[in-house]
Specification:
Elements (H helix, E strand, L loop, with lengths): L6 E6 L3 H10 L7 E7 L2 H11 L3 E5 L7 H11 L6 E6 L4 H9 L4 E4 L4 H32 L1 H4 L5 H16 L6 H8 L3 H12 L3 H19 L5 H7 L5 H12 L3 H7 L1
Parallel strand pairs: 1-2, 1-3, 3-4, 4-5
């Protein structure tokens, strides 16, 4: 018997038959999941993930438009305030792929063709970890309500110290690839707990804060170095994809980088 769906999942697979087979052939609700989207390549998947923020991504590795490895890397950098669980599926048993997946903290790496039982075991394990983290977060919230936030530490709690430490780390390391797991490790908290704590204490998400710091530096570079290329600005503030940087800058500032430079 299935459980009520409380987590969202996304499929990324460029072979239509496999993608449709997974959409229709897996009883997602029996694992406590809702299938939020199915993408045909990494580029489409990234756009959907930024908007939908799924809990789990099940992705192929070899795809024409952005492969699975690059997709996971972008999920970690473009959505750093959410610890998305990634399961990789591939017909390639290449050591390089597996090593890259491990570095990106992928939950599992399934080789095609795989049995439904294999995928089911992995999904149950991932959902169990999400359940455990959710329960931990709820216990902390209950404890806070019982004790009262100010009663715990009226002059600045350990939580606030953690947030300040994360802010300082971001301000020093924003040029690098930043992931939620990496930030959480700096203050010895679980990734999702840190994401919730940061939003509670600052009123903004980690992702928005990182974007704010990076774009502030981008504006400085555009003002003070008139000859600098937009692509170089992007790289120097932590974005490897110049097109994505330009799109983000236009969305947040109201002008693209070139227009901004002409007006300052």
């Amino acid at each position: 018997m299935g459980r009520s769906p409380i987590y969202t999942c996304m499929i990324v697979e460029d072979e239509e038959l496999i993608r449709e087979g997974m959409k229709m052939g897996i009883d997602w609700s029996s694992y406590g999941l809702t299938l939020a989207a199915a993408a045909a390549d990494g580029k489409e998947a990234l756009e959907l993930a930024v908007r939908l923020r799924p809990d789990i991504v099940l992705t192929d590795v070899v795809m024409k438009e952005m492969d699975g490895i690059e997709l996971v890397r972008r999920l970690r950098t473009d959505i750093p305030d959410k610890d998305i669980r990634v399961i990789m599926i591939s017909g390639h048993e290449k050591v390089d792929y597996i090593k890259s997946a491990l570095k990106l903290q992928v939950i599992d790496y399934l080789l095609k063709p795989f049995h439904d039982e294999e995928l089911g075991d992995v999904l149950r394990r991932v959902v169990a970890s999400l359940d455990a983290e959710r329960k931990q977060l709820e216990r902390v919230r209950i404890l806070e309500r019982r004790l009262g936030h100010e009663e715990v530490d009226p002059n600045g709690s350990d939580q606030r110290k953690s947030v300040r430490a994360v802010k300082a780390y971001i301000q020093n390391a924003f040029r690098e690839e930043l992931t939620l797991a990496q930030l959480a490790a700096q203050v010895h908290l679980s990734p999702n707990y840190l994401a919730n704590l940061f939003k509670k204490e600052t009123g903004v998400t980690l992702n928005d804060y990182i974007t704010e710091i990076r774009l502030a530096e981008a504006k400085r570079l555009l003002r003070e170095e008139p000859g600098i290329l937009v692509f170089d600005v992007a790289e120097r503030v932590g974005y490897k994809d110049g097109k994505y940087f330009t799109k983000l800058f236009k969305r947040e500032v109201g002008l693209n980088p070139s227009e901004f430079r002409e007006r300052v």
